[in-house]
């Protein structure tokens, strides 16, 4: 699906709308005046499209998000590329204040806030003079904008807030500055950090206001499906209430979504393709970031309608000489410890003593065992939804099927160097779509809601129902009917899972969140709110660039040094 928008226009319009003459004096007789813009619902919709599109700005889901932040901190990924020291340090839980990836994400999230605030000011200015027939449309625009502002603050608070709220503690720690209007003077940009609780309260307030304005609204038109409606807001609110451990409100909202939204888990066949540009806006999707292949601008360009996440996580394949070849940048691959966590223990594709990563040296019996495990589901089937298996799976290169290889530049011949599958282009190399992938981001879906609901129910003593919702998610993964007891059901909340490690081995709730949502960018926030970072670091131990260096302050990322130097009232997080 498309959002037809050109960022260059939005940058002009939004910057014009956000500056007074005494702040930035621009003498341009051809510029659009804030007195005449926005002056219609169409003008507001134009600005709204820009606020949505900022979600896939280059340093958010246009490029940096996942492989250059959350994938690293939670060790979803390891690095084949060893040429960027700060990138390696992110993977070691040793983030630096001068890291350019963090700086970019910080700036683009704040740009999203600024665009929302500018649009909200435009709504307030236009609403009194709007025709009565436009009032409903204006309210829908305002509701969506409040949702978007909450979305940007969700990331700012989750990534840079000093702590999550755990057992009533942490709310008084530093959050981020709360900005509800666009600055018109330099002093107005010098804002101190609010507390973590104040930030979450602000997010909840925006979402509840959006809930009221979007009540009863769903978008079914082909060009509107990406827009926020009632159930997406309610699901988001339920997730936020879980994050702040307000279990009563979490139960109210998540139960409402589960019972009344009309959403349902898709089949496993649909599930395994919906991260690759197919089956978009399906019955499971609640919030979906809209992308489209863009042959004009790459995902690293602010004007692009696509994403270049896929170029960073691109698979590697068997080239003409039987060795590894990159399908794009191919910088990162799934951390080897993740393969074992899905229950894969069938040995390695190269026999012991192999010296060269070449398809000619693959153990043929390994392929036979792997195919049998996939067919018989003796390994969690979600492994092959999330990852591509070397010398068993294939990809298309210029119309020709090529086997996946031992990942590029991995010198450790015995390492499980697989490739990612979620959010990569399955129809060819990323370069064939101009490194502007059109795979929509399924940001919040019903399986996530089921597991959040199950977690919530454990805090009200309803373990039986909690276990049932965990099992619903697992049943779908194994191809069973979702609502009928199955042979793969967990028998208790402490039953054995597919994972071999102490963190997940006997915790079905945590394991199912890890396995079901693997590669979707949620696990890091679970690690933070459960305070299991030290245990996760102990399991993964190291990345190719060095040993993981876990400290208790690593749950929060450092405020970028540029922000520290430009805002005299902002203080750095502890540990940096």
SSE arrangement:
Blueprint: H1 7-17, H2 41-53, H3 70-73, E1 77-79, H4 85-91, H5 100-126, H6 135-160, H7 196-213, H8 230-243, H9 247-260, H10 268-271, E2 285-289, H11 309-312, E3 316-318, E4 324-326, E5 332-334, H12 336-341, H13 364-376, H14 383-386, E6 387-388, E7 394-397, E8 400-403, E9 419-420, E10 441-445, H15 446-458, H16 463-477, H17 508-516, H18 523-530, H19 533-540, E11 542-543, E12 546-547, H20 561-566
Antiparallel strand pairs: 1-5, 2-10, 3-4, 6-9, 7-8, 11-12
Q: What spatial form do the alpha-carbon principal axes imply?
A: globular
Largest sheet: 2 strands, antiparallel
Summarize the amount of helix as a percent range: 25-40%
Using the coordinates above, name the CATH class of the largest domain.
Answer: Mainly Alpha
Provide the low-confidence segments as ranges.
1-26
| Total domain units | 2
Stated plainly, the CATH topology of the largest domain is called: Serine Threonine Protein Phosphatase 5, Tetratricopeptide repeat
Hey, roughly how much beta strand do the residues contain? 5-15%
Read across the widest sheet, the strand sequence of neighbours is 1-5
Give a short overview.
The chain has 576 residues and is mainly alpha-helical. It has helices spanning 7-17, 41-53, 70-73, 85-91, 100-126, 135-160, 196-213, 230-243, 247-260, 268-271, 309-312, 336-341, 364-376, 383-386, 446-458, 463-477, 508-516, 523-530, 533-540, 561-566, and strands at 77-79, 285-289, 316-318, 324-326, 332-334, 387-388, 394-397, 400-403, 419-420, 441-445, 542-543, 546-547.
Describe the protein.
This protein has 576 residues and is mainly alpha-helical. It folds into two domains: 309 residues, Serine Threonine Protein Phosphatase 5, Tetratricopeptide repeat, CATH 1.25.40.390; 109 residues, no CATH class. It has a two-stranded antiparallel sheet with strand order 1-5. Helix 1 packs across helix 2, helix 6 packs antiparallel against helix 7 and helix 8 crosses helix 15. The N terminus is likely disordered. Belongs to the SusD family. Pfam families: SusD-like_3, SusD_RagB. It comes from Spirosoma endbachense. One of its GO terms (cellular component) is cell outer membrane.
